Amino acid sequence: MEWILFDKDGTLIEFDKSWEKIGVRLVDSFLDKFPIADKEAAHRQLGVIDDAIVPNSVMGSGSLDDMVKAFNNIAGEDVSDWTRNTSQELVDNRVPENNWIEGVYETIKALKNEGYKIGIVTSDSRKGVMQFLEDTNSEDAFDLIISTETHAAEKPNPAVLNPLFDHYDVRPAEVVIVGDTNNDMKTKVNAELGLAIGVLSGIAKKDELEDADYIIDTAVDVPKILKQHSEK
After folding, report:
1. Per-residue model confidence (pLDDT) at position 16
2. Nearest-angstrom CA–CA distance, 20 and 157
3. 3-state secondary structure of 176
4. Out of 93, 121, 140, 190, which could bridge 146 as a Cys pair, Cβ 3.0 to 4.6 Å?
5. 114 CB-near residues (< 8 Å, 6+ apart)
6. Which helix (H) or strand (E) holds 205?
7. pLDDT in tens, 187-206
8. Does the pTM exceed 0.85?
9. CA nearest to 9, candidates 17, 95, 24, 145
10. Are 160 and 175 contacting, i.e. CB atoms less than 8 angstroms apart?
11. Using CA atoms, how far apart are residues 73 and 212, in angstroms rounded to an integer?
12. Average pLDDT, rounded, for the chain
């Protein structure tokens, strides 16, 4: 393996509660903007209950594309542009929480010292990623940043990895992806990557990471999995 791509929230850092606030605000704004007859049913369908997001719901673990489809279905019309633009505006104005999961920064530095290239592939915007890197003084830990902007490809669409494959001479089979949702794991499947490692430090439960090759508690155990995998 040559490259290791890490999801950010829930994988590198503790899951940022500001994401939940954004999700709730997006749903509330949607229900205020469009004439939805049964707002309570729409909340349940989207996965917002008592101002909190259900982890395995569309809002909890779906991609932005999934959310767009769900909003379109509930509205009975195409609200794609509104959803994407409003979501991006909320993301751009959020105040992030950037707390490393214990031991993960040291693990990444150790992997770099072993010769691995390290990247981030996240649903956060580039602004959010740069805030994370600046807040944690960790810009030197990563060789590549892949963020998700309005109308851009996102996980699990394999096109999200074009910045890697367009600029580096690496085969998909030499790439590992590490993340806390099955969208991360599906990215491995769709892009035909070499390995998918699921972590339980974020929002998904073990049985939800059905496309993972390995499941570990936190990214601290990635070196152990790489060693185990190479010995097979």
Report:
1. 64
2. 23
3. strand
4. 121
5. 223
6. none
7. 999 999 999 999 999 988 99
8. no
9. 17
10. no
11. 30
12. 93
Residue the block writes with tokens 């085969």:
171
Evaluated on CA atoms 167, 169, 171, 176, the torsion sign reads: negative
- Quick one: three-class SS letters along 94-109? CCCCCCECCCHHHHHH
Report residue 36's pLDDT band, with 50, 70 and 90 as the boundaries.
very high
CATH of 3-15+98-231, one of 3.40.50.2300, 3.40.50.1000, 3.40.50.1980, 1.10.10.10: 3.40.50.1000
Chain segment 123-173, per-residue pLDDT in tens? 888 888 998 999 899 999 999 999 988 678 889 999 999 999 999 999 999
CA distances from 230 to 62, 63, 225, 226 (A): 32, 32, 8, 6
- The sign of the torsion formed by the CA atoms of 155, 147, 53, 88 equals negative
For the chain, strand residue ranges (E) read 3-6, 48-49, 52-53, 117-121, 144-146, 175-179, 195-199, 214-216
- Ranges of each domain in the chain: 3-15+98-231, 17-93
First-to-last CA distance in the chain? 13
At 225, list the tokens. Answer: 């999995």
